[in-house]
Amino acid sequence: MKHPKVMARMRQEIKEVLGNEPPTMQHIRQLTYTKQVIDESLRLYPPAWVIGRQALAPDEIGGFRIKKGDVVLIPIYAMHRHEAFWPDPERFAPERFTSEAVKARAKFSYLPFGGGQRICIGQSFAMMEMQIALVMLVRSFEFELVEGQEIEAEPLITLRPKTGIWVKKL
Ligand code: HEM
Fold it and tell me: Which of 19, 98, 108, 135 has minimal CB crowding within 10 Å?
């Protein structure tokens, strides 16, 4: 296991909030640390790792001239690991997503669901699904990574693990 302390804290939260009850929206709202774990996972591995826009008119962004029709790519993966926003950016640290830490950061430094007018319409639904799936997995099993595998991210239309992530049940 790569982050046993994070796992232990999440297990504890799930135990305290849910016990053995099936998860409801009421529970989900209280799972603040579990949500931070998901937020931090989406920072390091944003499924939508790059999005694009086509310029309707000439513009200038940060000194770069953009012509009408140019395609501008927004490199979400790179922004999520940019030192200007994320100290020690490669480190997995769910505490980056306490409400105080989020408030202190530039609004558009974190874009797993995009931003502005075209922000993901399914954001809340996706977060709820991820929380339910994680809660059920963590509560039902003790598991750890199969040793010796090389986990490589593959940037297709979405970012995914190239050969899956193998875990074994303890
Ligand atoms: C972890 C899961 C998901 C991620 C990371 C994600 C990410 C995104 C991102 C980054 C965008 C913005 C694209 C852009 O600006 O070019 C987007 C848009 C969109 N997403 Fe998601 N999404 C997720 C789940 C879902 C789900 C579950 C639904 C539907 C139930 C959904 C429906 C949409 C729709 C309809 C748009 C287009 C919105 C518009 O252009 O007005 N997404 N999503």
Answer: 19
Is 112 within 8 Å of 101 (Cβ atoms)? no
Identify residue 112 by its one-letter amino acid code: P
The pTM assigned to this predicted structure is 0.95
Q: Which domains does the chain have, with CATH numbers?
A: 4-169 (1.10.630.10)
Instruction: Compute, in angstroms, the gap from residue 53 CA to the centroid of ligand 1.
Output: 15
CB neighbourhood size of 86 (10 A):
19
The Cα 75–Cα 123 span in angstroms is 19
Q: Going residue by residue through the chain, which has 170 residues, state the pLDDT in tens, using 9 for 90 and above.
A: 899 999 999 999 999 999 999 999 999 999 999 999 999 999 999 999 999 999 999 999 999 999 999 999 999 999 999 999 999 999 999 999 999 999 999 999 999 999 999 999 999 999 999 999 999 999 999 999 999 999 999 999 999 999 999 999 99
Determine the 3-state secondary structure of 52 from DSSP.
strand
Residue 152's nearest CA partner among 45, 39, 3, 43 is 45
